[in-house]
Each structure stands twice: as structure tokens, then as C-alpha cells.
Write a structure and sequence with these properties.
The protein is of the alpha+beta class and 275 residues long. An 11-stranded antiparallel beta sheet has the order 6-5-4-3-2-1-11-10-9-8-7. The longest helix is centred in the first third of the chain and has 18 residues. The two termini are 20 Å apart.
């Protein structure tokens, strides 16, 4: 019963969202003996470990969804602790199609194997949290919550199959190296840490394809500063596939990221509306 509730909750988030910049790069500086160009696949497979070493950061997220001629963008901002695998985001849903009403921001807490949402709406009291088992979601919560978990986004790169070093560019005043490639979610799941194994394994089975094209920008320390994935999944609410572009920006590494999960009495146990 609980598992079915979690699946319904996740599906409702996607349904509600659906109804309801890239920087220029120069190819200069690339040489045959450039270490960054020599082993781009290996470099990207290690990127998640580099984030864990960094400890924490602030994050901005953007998720663009397109289906049936409708395009929506969901934005989020918050902090993430890579060692504890805990994050907090404030997620802004788009306006209704008529543009006449605004949604309250949803506070999301990201934890190993779980997503907690506050201000969820759909009959949930304002002071209660909704808990979703992310391993029980068809997309592993790479899409459902409206923002991709920053560490899960990085661990997708553990499944990098092909990658090219594009060159250097500047991002928010920091010189970064741009890589472009394709990752395999099933391979990423095998190399992922902790709960992300089941999360990415679920996504590998639930998405329309396990192949995920990406662009990623690393700084001198090898830390991800920007990553953009392009996912494709089947939405049970509508025919055809949904194209999703998920972008995550990471900055202010080492910032305090005190994320506290709700207690059992603060989690809503009632029925959640589907719409």
C-alpha cells in the first residue's frame, strides 16, 4: 500500500507540472597532449567523487519539459551536502496555462532513497511533508520532483560511454572545461554509491532510453560547475514521450548545508489528490 502511494505521489507531481542558458565555448587551447582531452571518459566518471571531496555547494536547477506542444520550465535553488547526501531546494512551479494563478514554492528535501516535499498542495496540510520513495519511481526522481538531485546528476556520469573535450570557456567568472558525451543509466547504476544505485537502476528501466546525452563543465579542481542532461521518458498520463532537459549549476563550494529531515509526526499519511 505504501509503495503504491509513493508511486501515485510521484506520478501526480509529474502530471501537475505538465498540466499546470547555455554558454558559448571556444575550442581554443586543445592539444593532443592536453590531459583533459586525453581521457575525457575517465575524467567524467570521477566527477562525482570530486564533488564528495568538495563537501557541499549551493545549487540552481532548471528543468524544461516538452510534450504535446506544451513546454514548461521549473526552477529551483538551494544547498547540497555531498558527503551526507542531503539537499534542500526551493522549487518554483510554472504558472497555470492561463497565466492567472501562481503556485507557492515547494520546499524539497533530498535524501538517500527519499524525497520530502512541503507545500505540496493536493489536499496536503501546509505544515506537513509528503515522503516519496525515490527507488519506487519509474524515473528514480531524476525528473519527478522537478529538479534532479545534484549528486545523482553527477553519478549519471559514472556511466559515461563516449565523451569529447570541447574546450575552455568562462562560467560566472570561472574558467571551466566543457565536455560533451553520452552516459548509460544502467552502467551508471552499477558504479553509483549507496541509494543512487537503485535510483539510477529505476531510471534505466523507466526511461524511454537508458542513453543520456549531456554537456558538463568542470573547473580546475575537476568539480562540476554546470551539467545539462537530456532525458526522455514515457508519461502514463499522455501518449508519446516527454523530452526533458535538466540543468544544474553548482557554486559556493564548502558553504554550510545543514539539512534536517522531518520527523515521522511531520509527514502526511493521508490520501493525496491526483491532479
Amino acid at each position: 500500500m505504501a509503495e503504491r502511494q509513493h508511486r501515485r505521489t510521484g506520478g501526480a507531481v509529474v502530471a501537475a507540472v505538465l498540466v499546470a542558458g547555455a554558454t558559448g565555448c571556444s575550442g581554443g587551447g586543445t592539444t593532443l597532449d592536453d590531459a583533459h582531452a586525453a581521457d575525457p571518459v575517465g575524467t567524467l566518471r570521477r566527477a562525482a567523487d570530486t564533488l564528495v571531496d568538495a563537501g557541499s555547494s549551493r545549487a540552481r536547477t532548471s528543468m524544461e519539459m516538452a510534450t504535446g506542444g506544451t513546454r514548461v520550465t521549473i526552477r529551483g535553488e538551494g544547498v547540497y551536502d555531498y558527503r551526507e547526501r542531503l539537499g534542500r531546494l526551493k522549487v518554483m512551479l510554472p504558472q497555470d496555462p492561463a497565466g492567472t494563478s501562481e503556485h507557492r514554492p515547494i520546499t524539497e528535501l533530498l535524501a538517500p532513497g527519499a524525497l520530502f516535499m512541503k507545500n505540496r498542495g493536493a489536499g496536503v496540510p501546509a505544515d506537513k511533508w509528503v515522503r516519496v520513495d525515490t527507488a519506487g519511481l519509474a524515473d528514480g526522481n531524476l525528473v519527478t520532483g522537478g529538479a534532479t538531485d545534484p549528486l545523482a546528476a553527477a553519478e549519471v556520469l559514472r556511466g559515461t560511454r563516449t565523451a569529447t573535450y570541447v574546450g575552455t570557456t568562462e562560467l560566472a567568472g570561472t574558467e571551466v572545461r566543457h565536455y560533451r558525451g553520452t552516459a548509460d543509466l544502467a552502467a551508471a547504476a552499477k558504479g553509483a554509491s549507496g541509494a543512487n544505485k537503485s535510483v539510477l537502476a529505476a531510471a534505466a528501466k523507466g526511461f524511454a532510453t537508458a542513453a543520456v546525452p549531456f554537456d558538463v563543465y568542470l573547473d580546475e579542481q575537476g568539480r562540476i560547475r554546470k551539467i545539462r542532461h537530456r532525458f526522455s521518458f514515457v508519461n502514463g498520463q499522455q501518449p508519446g514521450t516527454v523530452a526533458v532537459a535538466s540543468t544544474t549549476l553548482l557554486f559556493d563550494f564548502g558553504v554550510a548545508a545543514d539539512v534536517r529531515l522531518p520527523t515521522a509526526r511531520d509527514i502526511y499519511a493521508g490520501k493525496i489528490a491526483e491532479g
